[in-house]
Write a structure and sequence with these properties.
The complex is a heterodimer of chains A (266) and B (122).
Chain A: E1 2-7, H1 16-28, E2 35-38, H2 41-50, E3 58-63, H3 65-73, E4 83-88, H4 93-97, H5 103-112, E5 114-118, E6 121-123, E7 126-128, E8 131-136, E9 147-152, E10 157-161, E11 164-169, E12 181-188, H6 198-208, E13 213-222, E14 225-229, E15 233-235, E16 240-241, E17 244-249, E18 254-258
Parallel strand pairs in A: 1-2, 1-3, 3-4
Antiparallel strand pairs in A: 5-18, 6-7, 6-17, 8-11, 8-15, 9-10, 9-14, 11-12, 12-13, 14-17, 15-16
Chain B: E1 20-22, E2 27-34, E3 38-40, E4 43-50, E5 53-56, E6 61-68, E7 70-73, E8 76-83, E9 86-89, E10 94-101, E11 103-106, E12 111-118
Parallel strand pairs in B: 1-3, 2-4, 3-5, 4-6, 5-7, 6-8, 7-9, 8-10, 9-11, 10-12
Classes of the chains: A alpha+beta (266), B mainly beta (122).
């Protein structure tokens, strides 16, 4: 059985016309069912806990890459099954990697059920698939002494000013040294770390939207990172983290549905 | 990707550079083992070992040892450096310690207080 979920607060809205078209396409492939909604991480957690994992073969996220990453963020709660499908309704780097270019491709892929196993990475108690961005939260005290320490599994220690961090899954088969996570640190484009009140509220809104990145300060690859920051951290989806967290490989892979490539006729 | 010295500007301007980069604002300690090119422009204490090239930027202050395919120094280095190919100390560079490489190039104005070994059998 296929279960479809969508984020009612997604940055990419689905109108009724598109919803009907998607349903029509899914019906054509005999894989249609109700679309379930969530509007917070808590609601999504409850939704995932309520799913019958025995009868649900595939869980499909309808939306954009942010929505996909929100689902992946909680994937540990699903256990090994079901397989994860993605029905993109916006331009998507993740979907492109799965050879899925639009909802028509997605419906076909879901029907074909070509499953590939992919490594995901844990960040504190959440997970990410392709990349995740972290920014420091203002601490409200007005102090300018905001810094962070980064440690790798080899014992390399780096101290730097409070930065925007980007962690990227490089797909471990690309690197000989089994260092599949790339970190880039950038100075924040605007020095807004010591603001409070109305400014802090505006900052929180800005943090949820992609900020322009400042100067590159660091670029390296490792298997694991430990981050210690003077301030709490928040990611590009607005989710908060404590000021100490560990990023590393998740101990089991996820099963993703990709599109089967058809051979061209001669 | 080799660091292209003809390109001016910050390392992040180098399109396609995906090697190891420690910037001016960073203070690093520990060991670096890599297959890639490494560009250090901050403060670093430890050992560097890579199959790629190492470039020490103008703002860099490095204490430790470096082993690489080639090494270019534009900042300050104290320690032992070994290269399979060339070692270059630029006019603004400073090297204290020892250097072993196939070819050792010391630009006019460079400050070098080091034991130098160069030639085919290094």
């Amino acid at each position: 059985m296929y279960k479809y979920i969508q984020n009612s607060l997604s940055q990419t809205k689905i109108d009724e016309q598109l919803t009907n078209k998607i349903h029509a396409e899914l019906i054509k492939h005999h894989i249609d069912s109700e679309f379930l909604s969530f509007s917070s991480e808590k609601e999504l957690t409850n939704l995932l806990n309520s799913i019958d994992k025995v009868s649900t073969s595939t869980l499909v996220i309808i939306g954009d890459d942010n929505d996909f990453n929100i689902l992946i963020g909680l994937i540990g709660k699903l256990g090994a099954d079901p397989a994860i499908g993605y029905l993109p309704i916006a331009k998507s780097a993740v979907a492109k990697a799965l050879q899925i270019h639009n909802y028509l491709d997605a419906a076909q892929a879901l029907a074909q059920r070509k499953i590939i196993e992919k490594t995901i990475y844990s960040i504190s108690s959440r997970y990410f698939y392709d990349e995740i961005h972290l920014h420091t939260e203002p601490n409200g005290t007005g102090t300018k002494d905001n810094s962070m320490k980064i440690k790798t599994e080899t014992g390399l220690e780096l101290s730097l000013p409070a930065s925007s961090l980007k962690f990227e899954n490089l797909n471990e088969d690309r690197y000989l040294n089994d260092t599949p996570i790339q970190i880039n640190a950038y100075s924040p484009a605007n020095n807004i770390l010591h603001s409070k009140g109305l400014k802090a509220k505006i900052i929180n809104i800005l943090i949820k939207n992609p900020q322009p990145l400042g100067k590159s300060m660091l670029n390296l690859h490792a298997k694991m990172f430990k981050i210690e920051s003077t301030n709490n951290l928040v990611d590009n989806l607005g989710r908060k983290y404590k000021n100490t967290l560990i990023i590393g490989k998740h101990n089991s892979k996820i099963r993703l549905i990709a599109k089967k490539l058809t051979k061209k006729a001669n | 990707m080799m660091i292209d010295k003809t390109k001016k500007g910050h390392i992040s301007d180098l399109v396609g550079f995906s090697g190891f980069y420690i910037g001016t604002e960073v203070i690093a300690t520990g060991d670096i083992k890599s297959e890639e090119d490494i560009f250090i422009d901050g403060s670093y204490k430890g050992t560097v070992k890579t199959a790629g090239a190492v470039e020490i930027g103008k703002n860099a202050n490095v204490i430790g040892s470096i082993e690489a395919r080639s090494i270019t120094i534009e900042g300050q280095v104290k320690g032992a450096i070994i290269a399979l190919d060339d070692i270059t100390v630029a006019s603004c560079g400073e090297l204290t310690g020892s250097a072993e490489g196939k070819n050792i190039n010391i630009d006019l104005g460079a400050l070098v207080k080091a034991r130098i070994t160069s030639g085919r059998n290094v």
